[in-house]
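Reading group handout, session on sequence-to-structure problems. Before we discuss, look at one worked example. The prompt was deliberately terse, the way you'd type it at a terminal:

> structure Sulfate exporter family transporter

The input record follows.
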Amino acid sequence: MGRAPSPTEPYSGDLFGEIHLAELTRSAAAPTVRDYFPGLTICAVASGAAAWLSDHYGVPVILLGLLVGLALNFAARDPRTHRGLDLASQQFLRIGIVLLGFQVSASQIMALGIGPFAALLAIMAIALAAALIAARLSRQSPFAGLLAGGATAICGASAALALYGVIGKERLGQAQFALTLVGVSMASALAMSLYPVIAAQLGLSDAQAGYLIGASIHDVGQAIGGAYDFSDTAGAYATIVKLARVTMLAPVVLLVSLWIGPAASNAARPAWRRLAVPWFITLFLAIVAVNSLIDLPAMTATTSLAASKAMLLLAVTATAMRSRTDLLLDLGWRATAPVAAASLASFAAALFFVMFGVSG
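And the output record:
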């Protein structure tokens, strides 16, 4: 006679047991395209809705992606969406950052000049220091200050996504990450409206206004758009200043990864792998090098920028959908202190250097 099944084993004649065995077999197998489909589909629909709203109402698309994703985060309770959402939140953001390299070249830094570029580095350092100090005073994690400061200093949501990939979920929860993204996007949108008006009230020249706006607004598109609202000359100069900040994305991410060390989940890996530059940063630098040495067609930059924005929007939306809104509410107002401090410090420092004539 055969052995009787134990109480904990699924009985083969039981329908539930057969379904349970099938689920175990499916989860152990390698994921297929079908496993990613539910999460990617709902993420694409939510991102498309955010893009439509942004196009019709003029609200920053990244901010709308965050809000729509948070509103639909109940969908992430279904385990079938997890693979697709995780793919979008992790790999799509890396692809978006890589494609951003087509917008950057070494000639942009050379066109800026040594003095203005040195001042730009000082502004970035001041923003980062202000965020770290604010995080400490408001009893937040230092990693929250690092994330907010880096995002403010470099290029907003793109930098936040890259830095969070190095910081890791073990050090900083997704709720704090999502709140930082919301704060950075809102601060950038507000700055786009206010900074050109402030520059005009102060009687700044086109070059001064372009430097002020390009050095202090977080998002690339909003920095350039805000400067063009002032004048075409200011817009052209702000483009150079802002893209010079973007060139610092790879060095800052590399320095942060070396400074804070590996996350707990990577501590057992060999030292050479823990200290290795993330693959997407390596590709970013490679594309910047190619773009600096070869005169690529203008369509390459335009197409890659559109693709980068799409990838980053999908990544932000997926991250918001995987965030818990109850944890966001628990964080309170103190969680926004690093972003606010970094934004104010960045503007004040940029205005200081503009007034003292180092803006080019």
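Points for discussion. First: The chain is about 75% helix and 0% strand. Second: The chain has a mean pLDDT of 79.
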